[in-house]
Amino acid sequence: MDDDIQRGEQSDFDLPQATNDASPEILPDPEPDTRLYVPDNEDWNVLIKRDSERIYCYAKEPGQDWFHLILGGEIYLTRQHERYCLRCALRLNFVTQDRLFWQHRVPKKKPTNL
Asked: Among residues 37, 42, 40, which one has the least CA distance to residue 100?
């Protein structure tokens, strides 16, 4: 194989030649950004359902009149006795995909002394 390389033949390890293009093509990221953020995270916990206990999401899907199950292996949020699947937590704005959520927040009103 070394003899082939010395004679000017390409090997599998050769790097592609650089081009003189003024604007290289930028490929889009193949994976979407799927990170989630909990803006008001003081009261929230995030858990993975690991047992066989029946746990229901505390929110109903729009147009449905029943609560849906949280399945084994599913990631969900809890606050005190409430449990929410990620889909409902996103819909109810308990979590967000907005990485800059802290810039878009409305400041909480401070309690006034009466």
From this structure: 37
